[in-house]
Amino acid sequence: MNASEPEVAPIPRLPSDEPNRRRRLLIVDDQPINIQALYQVFAADHQVFMATSGPQALALCLSKQPDLVLLDVMMPGMDGFEVCRRLKADPATADIPVIFVTAHSDEAAETLGLDVGAVDFISKPINPNIVRARVRTHVTLKAQSDLLRHWVYIDGLTGVHNRRYFDERLATEWGRAVRCGTALSVILIDVDFFKPYNDHYGHQTGDDCLRRVASTLKAGLKRPGDLMARYGGEEFACLLPETPLSGALELAHQLGQHVFDQQIAHDASLVAPVVTVSLGVCSKREDTVATVAALVREADAQLYIAKSRGRHQACG
Ligand code: GH3
Ligand code: MG
Ligand code: MG
Ligand code: MG
């Protein structure tokens, strides 16, 4: 591509921001006839999954991530209370709302059901309108809380993770790296001459440029555990678990090259006619980089060196 006006990179869609998506429902009951009754209530406007045992229900919750589970209590082997306990104990399934649907409807059972984490408790035989209404309420609440959680951790301009998420992950990964004696690296990335870019092309085009730089940097990551976040303004931060300095420096060089390869015109830059970035790399070291604060401070110091040596380069 030639140096040209930047294209607007699409902001990634939210997984939960799809108002027309059919909600996924998991119906769990050891009696097929009970499953059938609930299936008929929801099949028309939901994507329905079915399980006839506790272990099958747990597996489906992990693989299908339903928006809600309708859960029988009395089942051979693992009963519904235990299924609910296990769902709530696993961070990957803890947020899925559970409604017990059971013939076993004394107050003690209902109390236990709510205590193990269910949001509601419905007696069999079911009234379709009541089940439908209660499911609708909890599916809506779940969608709203998913959306909130998403925006707490995602940068609204670029669609990559934000500083809050980066800081939390950094603390977690630092703890893990110290415990396991593994490597951990950070790259701080700053767009070169971005104030002149805004002055020359205007803020709107500046925003488009940031979106494009963000998606280019994110696409340059190699492993699922790697993280690219917007650190602030025109700065990005990359977290690389189990990556020593040599690997992080190599990736930093590649990321800088990827941004350059986008050939986003920058007539006001003093380093090239296109948008470039400077990168500072640092890795955990027992002697000199022994705290999270030192890791980020040293990456920032290396970024400063990259700037002072002429920009459009990585130092570490
Ligand atoms: P250097 O090469 O030394 O990094 O120079 P610079 O001009 O990039 O450095 P400076 O920190 O002075 O400028 C950063 C600019 O980034 C200033 C600010 O207006 C701009 N900026 C920060 N956040 C945003 C944003 O969200 N959108 C836009 N369009 N510009 C932003
Ligand atoms: Mg049963
Ligand atoms: Mg800056
Ligand atoms: Mg800058």
Overall pLDDT level: 92
Number-wise, the strands total: 10
Bound molecules: 3'-deoxy-guanosine-5'-triphosphate, magnesium ion
Helix and strand composition category: alpha/beta
Describe this structure in words.
This protein is an alpha/beta fold and 316 residues long. 46% of the residues lie in helices and 17% in strands. The chain has helices at 32-42, 54-64, 80-89, 107-115, 128-153, 163-180, 194-201, 203-219, 245-261, 292-308, and strands at residues 23-28, 46-51, 68-71, 98-102, 120-123, 184-191, 227-232, 235-241, 277-283, 314-315. The strands form 2 sheets. Strands 2-1-3-4-5 form a 5-stranded parallel beta sheet, sandwiched between helices. It has a 5-stranded mixed beta sheet with strand order 7-8-6-9-10, with helices on both faces. Helix 4 (107-115) links the parallel strand 4 (98-102) and strand 5. Helix 2 packs parallel to helix 3 (80-89). It is elongated. Mean pLDDT is 92; it is low at 1-13. Bound molecules: 3'-deoxy-guanosine-5'-triphosphate and magnesium ion (MG) (3 copies).
